[in-house]
Amino acid sequence: MESCVSHLSCPCPHSVPVAPARWGPTQALILLIAFLMLGTLLFHEGTPVGEILALLGGCGATGAGTLALAGGGRRLIAVLVEAAVRSGVGR
Q: Model-level pTM?
């Protein structure tokens, strides 16, 4: 079998276009289970509930910020920063 020099003129399917990866329900479920397990294990080891919620909230905010930056969502980042500042003012 000859290797094709130009894929445009070749009738054989060398490369099939692949759709960009998207977050699906399976990935969301895996993350949910991981967060629930982490919170449960920390509680079982004696960590106060307030610290667990702060840790998991920080992880969620970091993940949301990373996804928004990767997607170019500057408005979403601005909203997240504003919410973080407002939540920190009440302490």
A: 0.52
List C-alpha distances in Å: 20 to 17, 23, 48, 62, 66: 9, 10, 41, 23, 18
* Amino acid (one-letter) located at 74: R
Answer yes or no: are the C-beta atoms of 48 and 60 closer than 8 Å: no
Q: Which two tokens stand for residue 88?
A: 């920190």
Token pair, residue 13, equals 């399917």
The alpha-carbon radius of gyration of the chain (Å, integer) is 22
Q: What is the pLDDT of residues 30-55, one digit of tens each?
A: 888 998 899 999 999 999 999 998 88
